[in-house]
TrEMBL record:
Residues 114-132 have a biased composition (Basic residues). It comes from the Eukaryota. Belongs to the SRP14 family. Keywords: Cytoplasm, Ribonucleoprotein, RNA-binding, Signal recognition particle. This is Signal recognition particle 14 kDa protein. PANTHER family: SIGNAL RECOGNITION PARTICLE 14 KD PROTEIN (PTHR12013). The lineage of its organism: Eukaryota, Amoebozoa, Discosea, Longamoebia, Centramoebida. GO terms for molecular function: 7S RNA binding; endoplasmic reticulum signal peptide binding.
Length: 132
């Protein structure tokens, strides 16, 4: 999976939608992203255990991982960050990404097919049940 910048992700997502316009699907997933602390090497038997570090315990920066794939060979992803320290700058970037993402998905949903329904409930035969 390739981790891209937000703008490059939007460009690649546009290409992915265009490539799958007539035939194929595009799957988009969004989820909360939490960075895991790096794994520490275990000490030898009998040695004192190192104290767990609290550096990575509380990461105040919320992140959102956005992934897109065609289900075959193309997989792209990006991380949307909101940094509270630079709230004015970062929040504008998040809002800009959300608006661009919403516009892109809306414009590329014109190739959707209407789902065929199997049948109504009223068309089924009622089977009598016996009460004991």
């Amino acid at each position: 999976m390739v981790l891209l910048t937000n703008q490059h992700f939007m460009d690649e997502l546009t290409k992915l939608f265009q490539a799958n316009k007539t035939k194929g699907s595009v799957w988009i997933t969004m989820k909360r992203h939490e960075e895991k602390p790096p794994k520490e090497k275990t000490a030898a038997k009998g040695a004192a255990k190192p104290k767990p570090s609290t550096e990575h315990a509380a990461d105040p920066e919320p992140k959102c991982l956005v992934r897109a794939t065609n289900g075959k060979d193309i997989k792209i992803s990006t991380v949307i960050r909101h940094e509270p320290r630079y709230a004015r700058v970062a929040s504008k970037d998040v809002v800009r990404f959300q608006l661009a993402f919403a516009t892109l998905t809306k414009t590329n949903m014109d190739g959707l097919k209407k789902r065929e329904r199997k049948g109504r409930r009223g068309n089924r035969k009622k089977v009598p049940t016996k009460h004991v």
